[in-house]
Amino acid sequence: MASLLHDDVLDNAATRRGKRALNIEVGNKLAILAGDFLLARASVTLASLRDADVIMLLSTVIEHLVTGEVMQMTARQEELLSFDHYSRKTHFKTASLIAKSCKAVALLGGAQPDVAEQAYQYGRHLGLAFQYVDDVLDFTGNALSLGKPSLSDLRSGIATGPVLFAAAESPALRTMIARRFKDPGDVEQALLWVQNSTGVQQTRELAATHAQLAREAVAQLPPAGCDHALAARGALEELTHIVLKRTK
User: Fold this and answer.
1) Which of 146, 151, 133, 145 is nearest to 189 (CA)?
2) Is the pLDDT of residue 16 over 70?
3) CB 201 within 8 A of CB 182
4) Together in a domain, 19 and 118
5) Which of 5, 21, 60, 64 has its CA 20 to 30 A from that of 43?
6) CA angle 51-219-124, nearest 5°?
7) For residue 92, what is the DSSP state?
8) pLDDT reported for residue 18
């Protein structure tokens, strides 16, 4: 929640999940302070666990969130066109939080290192699948279902999976990516090229690949020892399907 409040300030967002963003309601200063407060409360709660490994693990999430945001804001032209750069940024901004949270739960439950690693891989691939679908919805959803304006990434000068895949089919799109869609008509033309390409479909397929890898990580966990554990495992698998089917 803290990171979302800060993100809305950085992006000058007007809405969040269909409601006026806090920075619009109370201004940037108070919105930033609210994010800082939530981060402080989360840190206190984390410290109360009194588990040094888990505290260190989840503390790096903050570092990764900042790293991902800096990568996005300072990317050079060649990085804007790099799918590897896009994937690493996606890991830092989204997947790391879910991956390390899953691993933390395993460690707190007394799991062996190899089991904790499978929990991490589950969260990482689930997080990547979630974000790749989010990038698709920016092109296929509408403001009502998304709770925010569509094409928000394009308008912010950000090239996500559908755009990068489309650029392989329409090389002229690379010039727009390099200038962050700043010229008049860039956003509209980029949208047309994406719509006439396989960019959205390829991004959906990439999300499905990571969802499958998340399911494989669940399958490699030790056998469930009780009905509750079996039901929880089923829920983990169901999440990998939900992230692919969501429309908001």
Assistant:
1) 151
2) yes
3) no
4) no
5) 21
6) 55
7) I
8) 75
